[in-house]
Amino acid sequence: MRTSAKSRMVLTRHPIFEMKDREVWQEITTHGLEYHPVYDALIPRLSCVFCVLAPFDVLVRAARLCWALGLPLPARYRDLEAKIGHRFKQSHSFAEVYAEAERLEREEGPLVWNRGDAIRQHLGDGAADDYLARLAHAA
Length: 139
Prior knowledge:
Layout: E1 2-4, E2 9-11, H1 21-31, H2 56-68, H3 73-84, H4 94-108, H5 117-123, H6 125-138
Antiparallel strand pairs: 1-2
């Protein structure tokens, strides 16, 4: 964003917008930065829990995360979709998301995640272990 006044110009730059996911996680790890725990549940974006921009597999994971946290949102979304008669997305209904989440819960059990799983996913076990050790040492 650029704004100007008579005698000054102000530029606002957000370098994170130009970075790849791996680069962001490398910065977090290198500098021991905190991040939101939802990323460790391998939800790639911190946004509305059931974002219409999210792909099917992320919506399924978000439903399972809600259940793990004891939140009733998945059933509410499924029931609301049936009540109003409109699909959640053109490509799939929320009922389909719900059914797939239920199937995975039956097959795999409840969703489980650990601190550092996001780093582990993007940078590997060694980076996650180093990050967690650094946090433990700082505490």
